[in-house]
Amino acid sequence: MSTGITKEEAQSFGKVGVLFGGRSAEREVSIMSGTGVLEALRSQGIDAHPFDPGQRSLAELAAEKFDRVFIALHGRYGEDGTLQGALELLGIPYTGSGVMASSVAMDKITTKILWLKAGLPTPEFAVLDDASDLPAVAARLGLPLIVKPPHEGSSIGFSKVDAVDQFGAAYAKCAPLDDSVLAESFVSGREFTVAVLGTGAGARALPVVEIVAPKGNYDYQNKYFTDDVQYFCPPQLDEAIQAEMRRIAVEAYRTLGCEGWARVDVLLRDSDNRPFLLEANTSPGMTSHSLVPMAARAEGMSYEALCVEILRSARLKIKG
């Protein structure tokens, strides 16, 4: 595992804000992520301070005079470009992707459109509203289908639809969370994730992690609050397939314009071992159950070293 950083480097970061909590449905997870990041940075001698945008104003954020911030927020108002825009206006360098990439990656529909345009594999989809012809959608995409809100994470609002008469309940579950609803072809296969660090030509994938959940149910509870999910890094999988997963993950990351770090979720279809991209998370979890730290450990990078590497990448993205 990596050892620490020098006192000089720790001081060079200046006053660092760790932003966590927020107002999204993932607030609880964000608090766990941010607390871990805060402790890790402090353990390296970095002058790090907590800041919760869900409880404090942007005026207070400006008054803190942070030299840079580590974004450990998940979901809306933290991962979707809104906070990134505020930080650009305030002139505070920040970790992760900029305004456009954050907002695009947060919208699973736009993400899929861009990936398909780039020739990257992702399951077929339809956008649902109150007037949608659900039998026609089922006929075109086939059953079962995955139904989910396109702007939420952590499997919030997620349903698997096995018959047309289940659409109503699935849609009702999503409707309070989003103006539109995403229906996606179900891919039967193994679930993986690939963390990506860096920017542009320098972006690189960390080792692949396989996720094996009870009865295939990798939901919010199993992700963060139980020990029932098994993780394998590296997985029992041909290296050529892993290399292809890493390749398309990096291409997916670059296509969206991501930088700093992100996590790309991938399904490997049982029938032909073909990988399909599901979504990109531009501010992934950093809890004890989280997958980016797990992949970093497999490469010999400690949690603390990972947090420092991400912090090093903090910058303003808009030139002016």
Automatic annotation (TrEMBL):
Q: Does the keyword Ribosomal protein apply?
A: no
Task: Indicate the transmembrane segments per the record.
Answer: none
Binding residues for Mg(2+) 2, per the UniProt record? Answer: E279, N281
**What Gene3D superfamilies does the entry give?**
3.40.50.20, ATP-grasp fold, A domain, ATP-grasp fold, B domain
Please name the GO terms of the biological process aspect recorded for this protein, alphabetically: cell wall organization; peptidoglycan biosynthetic process; regulation of cell shape
Query: Which coarse location class applies to the principal site listed for this UniProt protein?
Result: cytoplasm
Please give the catalytic activity noted in the UniProt record.
2 D-alanine + ATP = D-alanyl-D-alanine + ADP + phosphate + H(+)
Query: What's the record's note on cofactor binding?
Result: Binds 2 magnesium or manganese ions per subunit.
Pathway(s) it belongs to: Cell wall biogenesis; peptidoglycan biosynthesis
In terms of InterPro entries, this protein maps to: ATP-grasp, ATP_grasp_subdomain_1, D-Ala_lig_Van_CS, D_ala_D_ala, Dala_Dala_lig_C, Dala_Dala_lig_N, PreATP-grasp_dom_sf
Q: Which domain of life is it from?
A: Bacteria
Q: Which ranges carry the ATP-grasp domain?
A: 112-312
The protein's UniProt keywords, in alphabetical order, are: ATP-binding, Cell shape, Cell wall biogenesis/degradation, Cytoplasm, Ligase, Magnesium, Manganese, Metal-binding, Nucleotide-binding, Peptidoglycan synthesis
GO molecular function: any one? D-alanine-D-alanine ligase activity
Keyword Membrane attributed: no
User: What family is this protein classified in?
Assistant: Belongs to the D-alanine--D-alanine ligase family.
The protein in question is named D-alanine--D-alanine ligase
Residues the record lists as binding Mg(2+) 1 = D265, E279
List where in the cell it is found.
Answer: Cytoplasm
State the organism's lineage: Bacteria, Pseudomonadati, Pseudomonadota, Betaproteobacteria, Burkholderiales
- Write out the GO cellular component annotations: cytosol
- Give the species this sequence originates from: Pseudoduganella umbonata
Cofactor(s) in the UniProt record? Mg(2+); Mn(2+)
Catalytic residues in the record: E26, S154, S290
